[in-house]
Amino acid sequence: MADEITVIGGVDTHTDFHQAAVIDSIGRHLATEAFPTTHHGYRRLLQWLRSHGEVMAVGVEGTGAYGSALARLLRANQVTVIEVDRPDRRARRTNGKSDPVNAFAAATAVLSGRAGGTPKTRDGIVEAIRTLPVVRRSAVKARTQIINQIRTLIITAPGEIRERLRTLAPAELIRQLSRSRPGADTRDPACAVRIALRRPARRHQYLTEEIADAELKSLAAEAAPALVALPGVGTETAAQLLITAGDNPERLASEASFAHLCAAAPVQAGSGRTNRHRLNRGGDRRANHALHMIALVRMRYDRRTRNHVARRTAEGMSKKDILRCLKRFIAREVYQHLTRPRPTPKPLTQSA
Fold first, then answer.
1. Is the C-alpha dihedral spanning 87, 92, 94, 97 positive or negative?
2. What is the C-alpha separation between 72 and 118, in angstroms, rounded?
3. Coil, strand or helix: which one is 330?
4. Quick one: pLDDT at residue 342?
5. Distance between CA atoms of residues 27 and 104, nearest Å
6. Bridge partners for 34 per DSSP
7. What are 155-187's pLDDT values in tens digits?
8. What's the pTM?
9. Contact by Cβ (8 Å): 287, 241
10. H or E segment at 110?
């Protein structure tokens, strides 16, 4: 009977369809089929897996991208979801590449133990935090382009406009341009330049309000108030570290694993008579940048950190090695606050 055997699923995720495969407990290929990326398609995929036996686990590629919705549905139905990396190039050259091949490879990786990562749940307050910095980063980039564009227009503007504006500080420049009254005679080059300068200045003000992002600040303070209160930790760095850990930081086995995830774990780099370590170049680069910014702020404003840097410098340690040690210490400190219980989102109440 089908319900007497234990099966393992594998899913190769795509935009419009997910290719699913199922194998038994000794690795025999049982079946493969494609399902649309809709809620109905996800439920059909789960029913199809269960029709072959008791589902022990499902390996899913891209649980943080195309497979996120499927992973949430599987977890909601008490199915163990395992994060599966795509096969390396050597395996692809040996076994070929197709959607069914990749789906069976995902299931086999779970069975063999090669894949054992616990994916992020993406169903709590950290998932709400994750969506906000995405648009904030694009707003920061757009605002930088705007101020550069304004400076370029000022360089080629008529003399009276250029002389009045080119020495102003950015904040005062934006304020004056946004409040200016250029006139209506667009055939006059001076009037056209004033109009062209006022429009990006007002856009710059709008983006500045968007970048302030009061929602992100309140969410980060609610999710981890002790983390935000640490020296050198701001709203953006706290949000990034929360995003890296996810809504289920218990999936991280230890503070050392969190340091590896943030690319802040030391790696041996000795050779011959040299015995030294360097930072791991893998991991989440945004989280590594957050730790780097915290370290820089502490090196300038935190007395305890300044004393530590002075002592290490006197011992002959380079600034790069001091930063490496500081980032590893900060990762340990941050991990203790990330693993504390977080508030659960309040359920929405429907009005009568």
1. positive
2. 13
3. helix
4. 60
5. 9
6. 19
7. 988 888 898 898 899 999 999 999 988 888 778
8. 0.79
9. yes
10. helix 99-112
